[in-house]
């Protein structure tokens, strides 16, 4: 059995707790993702969470369509996130979650690869959100180690993707979370 579902659940739970810490005066606060404030970052995370059940069920991008375009948070950003998070968690913990393939904008990929990418998004953006609101920025050591090993092998591809800032140098003695963040252009 893949280690991904339990790591994924822990990442969602950690993000749930961080979202719960957002104060009302912090929704427009900047985040380490320069293009997003706190609300926009949570909107991104929520939108992606809403896609997960569809994609793991084998639906195509065309079948999902544009239903998650625009503001997915509405008047209840926390509640919108928590509902999407719960649906994602239920889907990821299903017995066959890591089996099969998933349709993405990059073509069809294996479900395990998709969930690894999604776990990366959850772990790193939870750090971004925590940093923005002054919450605990520690990362799950097990998820960090697994993700660092995965992405370190693909450092050149990451650097050329335009999706991340340039890697940040860190000492060899840095923990896996710090190395992961640095690889993805974040200063811990």
Report on the structure:
By secondary structure, the protein is mainly α. The chain has eight helices and two strands, in the order ααααββαααα. It has a two-stranded antiparallel ribbon with strand order 1-2. A hairpin with a 2-residue loop joins strand 1 and strand 2. Helix 1 packs parallel to helix 5. The chain is globular and about 45 Å long. The N and C termini lie far apart (32 Å). The relative contact order is 0.16.
Gap from first CA to last CA: 32 Å
Counted by DSSP, the helix tally is 8
Q: Flag low-confidence runs.
A: none
The percentage of residues in β strands lies in under 5%
Report on the biggest sheet: 2 strands, antiparallel
**What is the tally of beta strands?**
2
- Overall outline: globular
H and E order: HHHHEEHHHH
Decide which structural class fits the backbone.
mainly alpha
On the 0 to 100 scale, the average pLDDT is 91
- Arrangement of strands in the largest sheet: 1-2
Rg over CA atoms: 16 Å
Helix-residue proportion: 55-70%
Kindly list the characteristics that best describe this protein.
two-stranded antiparallel sheet, mainly alpha, 56% helix, 188 residues
